[in-house]
Design brief:
Layout (H helix, E strand, L loop, with lengths): L1 H20 L4 E7 L14 E4 L6 E10 L1 E12 L3 E2 L7 E3 L3 E7 L5 E13 L2 E9 L1 E2 L8 E7 L11 E2 L2 E3 L5 E2 L1 H8 L10 H29 L1
């Protein structure tokens, strides 16, 4: 009976702890001038890509600091009319495990990226995802460069049921007062943040553990009689 109680408590512990330790994804996608990733767009930076004729290549990568990164969606703007991307499959290669498309933007001089990886990259991974070959018009001086600007193709949404830089956001991503935030996000009826869930599971776990202990004690007394 003690063995059953021990296994039950272990199962309850796993059920309660797993949601608490669940980590949100934190990753930064970037463009790089080389495989060494020494010159990138990380931290909002830009860089100028050198003209290497038919060997002019651009690299895209990701730096994962938390969670698992599976989807790579971004837009690269080539700020120089002499550098273009044809959009053909032969002009880019993907790192093993990645699939999807890298295409020429319908407007402007840019590149749209939409890739996915079923396994994903986990925290602590900083790696190149794809290599893109750019076209340079004939007769362009070797000293010409192309300024690389990277941004997301998706319109960023406001956080939901979060406090960011002192600003409160409700379940719909609207900026609200602290009182409205508490009403929308911290009550039992609206546990969007998930913060209420771990406490609920802890309470349930303690109740079940107490019940198992009571049943075990009762059965032990019956056996003794």
């Amino acid at each position: 009976m003690k063995k059953i109680l021990g296994v039950s408590l272990l199962a309850l512990f796993i059920i309660v702890i797993m949601p608490i330790n669940a980590k949100a994804l934190q990753a930064e996608i970037f463009a790089s001038s080389g495989m060494s990733m020494t010159e990138t767009t990380e931290g909002g930076k830009t860089f100028s890509l050198e003209n290497k004729g038919e060997s002019t290549k651009l690299y895209i990568g990701v730096n994962v600091t938390e969670g698992t990164f599976n989807d790579y969606t971004a837009h690269i703007e080539l700020e120089n009319s002499s550098f273009t991307f044809s959009g053909t499959r032969s002009d880019y290669s993907l790192t093993s495990g990645w699939s999807g498309t890298i295409s020429k933007s319908e407007t402007g001089n840019g590149i749209d990226i939409d890739l996915s990886n079923s396994t994903g990259y986990t925290a602590g991974t900083r790696r190149i995802v794809a290599t893109i070959t750019l076209d340079v018009a004939d007769g362009v001086p070797s000293t010409d460069t192309c300024r690389i600007i990277l941004g997301s193709t998706e319109t960023p949404e406001n956080p939901k049921c979060q406090i960011v830089d002192g600003i409160y956001y409700d379940a719909n991503g609207n900026e609200v007062s602290e009182e409205a935030y508490n009403a929308a996000c911290t009550t039992a009826e609206n546990p969007q943040t998930g913060s209420f869930l771990p406490y609920t599971l802890i309470i349930i776990g303690l109740v079940l553990a107490g019940w198992l202990y009571y049943v075990t004690k009762k059965n032990n007394k019956i056996y003794q009689v």
